[in-house]
Amino acid sequence: MTHLGYLIAGWSVTVLAVVGYAWWVLARLRSLGRRVPANRQRWMMPDDLTDDGNEHTELSEQP
Amino acid sequence: MSLTTVLSRQNATQDTQSISSSATKALGWAALVGFAILVVLAFAWVPADTRITDQGDVVGQFDAVRLMFVHVPSAILAYTGFGITFLASLGYLRWRTDWWDIMAASAAEIGVIFGVLTLVTGSIWGRPTWQTWWEWGDVRLVTTLVMVLVFIGYLAVRRIPANAAVKARRSVVIALVGAANIVIVNRSVDWWENRTLHQQSTLLARKIRDETLFTLTFAFVVGATLFGWLLLHRFRVGYLERQITEQEVQKAIAERQAESAAHDTGSLTQASNPTGQIQPQSKTSP
């Protein structure tokens, strides 16, 4: 096989970057998950935010 | 069953719930298995790129062509990430909600990861193919670099401490400017065809065929699966971060209200008892 060094470098850097990023995301998710009560961890949908109610989290000007 | 076992099981369940659902797990496994198959296809099935000239010389990229299966999908996923950032920013302008802002930021971060990968793998592929790691005169390379830098700037601006709404509005402006770059990068090889080492679109011109075309298409599918998995999880990180900020704000407000109430009670006591002497408590409470 020709250009083996380039192939190893190109594929390795891709795998390492993606796996490293995925690992970071999962670690952060796990860490944040422990700090947020289970009832506030559900997936958020756009409709939840446009109506009033407990899930209303529209950005406001207040600090 | 001991209490420790119950608690550890509960923690494990909570961790699992907070990290993934059955659907995202399936997506993650699909991406992993798909990538393993892609490696096999790219290295064992796709033939090396060779052509025989009229003079009988064998020319081509040889095995270096196998870098295409990481470089081209990376570029497409970077476009996808920045494209989603653009659309989500428009969504934010229309609806002004957290959802769109978090989606825009999550997609931008993933776009930057794949954008940097595009530049790095492109450079590694360029060395054996064009005998250069980088060419400043190449419009495709420079415009891609500018696009990635703009979105790195986008992420940097999001880290400047500010009110969430102000931060979101600033980000929208950069996302809209950055999105114009996507078109420029994509069309640069056609608009300035004499100022680039890149060839024009090989996919649309059907210059890639058979095993190579199948494997590249498969790489796009694996890339899309991986992108979906990353976006879902990164979005959830953003959502939880927002929940924590809200919790902290609510906690601070409650503390201030408690302080204020305590202060008011103290003032009332002071007003009703100006001498400061301790009054005996009544035996019957109201």
Can you summarize this structure?
Chain A has 63 residues and is mainly α. Helix content of chain A is 59%, strand content 0%.
Structure explained in plain terms:
The complex is a heterodimer of chains A (63) and B (286). By secondary structure, chain A is mainly alpha-helical. Chain A has one domain (4-50). Chain A is built from two helices and no strands. The radius of gyration of chain A is 21 Å and the shape is rod-shaped. Chain B has a domain at 71-193 and 227-248. Chain B has a two-stranded antiparallel ribbon with strand order 1-2. Chain B has helices at 3-19, 22-45, 68-95, 98-130, 139-158, 164-191, 210-272; strands at residues 49-52, 58-62. Residues 3-16 and 280-286 of chain B have low confidence and may be disordered. Chain B is mainly α. Chain B is built from seven helices and two strands, in the order H-H-E-E-H-H-H-H-H. Chains A and B meet through helix 1 and helix 2 of A and helix 1, helix 3, helix 4, helix 6 and helix 7 of B.
Draw up the topology in text:
The complex is a heterodimer of chains A (63) and B (286).
Chain A: H1 4-35, H2 46-50
Chain B: H1 3-19, H2 22-45, E1 49-52, E2 58-62, H3 68-95, H4 98-130, H5 139-158, H6 164-191, H7 210-272
Antiparallel strand pairs in B: 1-2
